[in-house]
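#random but structural
TW: two for the price of one
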Amino acid sequence: MLYYCGFKWHPHTTREKVAQRILQLHGESGANVKQYLKGWYNLVGGGAGFLLVEADDPHKVTAFTQPYMDLMSFDVRAIYSLDYDQQIQELRQVAQSTSAR
């Protein structure tokens, strides 16, 4: 399953603290982290962004985010992709059935 993990730094968090934590955890379990991380995006302006994490067990996602929770908050949601053309076809059917009532 794919998870959207939005993050926002706490007010006391600094770039140096985040850098130290990431490097520390990379050294301890870098290969383990990398196997779950499918995307890493920062928002313009800094201090926030999101990760795309793939895991077969939601407990693994919690374990992935917990070491950072003193530095940032997370908004974690399970996500899935949609095929645009298929969605348009389904929405047309929904719209037609609604207008027929």
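TW: number two ↓
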Amino acid sequence: MAYVGGERTHDGCVLCAIAEGDDDGNRVVEQAELTFTVLNLFPYSSGHVMVVPRTHVADLTELSAAEAAAVMEGAQRAVRALRLALNPDGLNLGVNSGTAAGAGIADHFHLHVVPRWSGDTNFMPVLADVKVIPEHMEQTAAKLRDAYAKLSS
């Protein structure tokens, strides 16, 4: 995939750049007033999205009550869209708060929603630290945008 060795196309916070419209990869699948939802550039599985508040804060406790509620509402919509578009057997939802907790983007809070299928863990991530994604991100994004449109109609 082109992003692995590509040049960095932005300065500062990548999530703020996406919120401001710098989405070269066209990964944003939903726009809401206080949040947006974007496919993760380094997914654990097909359909791995992040629900991101538009406010640039590092920690959940820095969000207003309305912003925190909007993140959870965005997570609910993401779960519905993922179920409609990809029919996963389960989902992981989580936050990595701080680099010690595994946050790749530690300075902008976001919530991961990761679809899972029975048997989706194999030897590749365990032995080779490689993730196998069976569908191109653009196809997954198109499916999710269609699912979000169906949910809002």
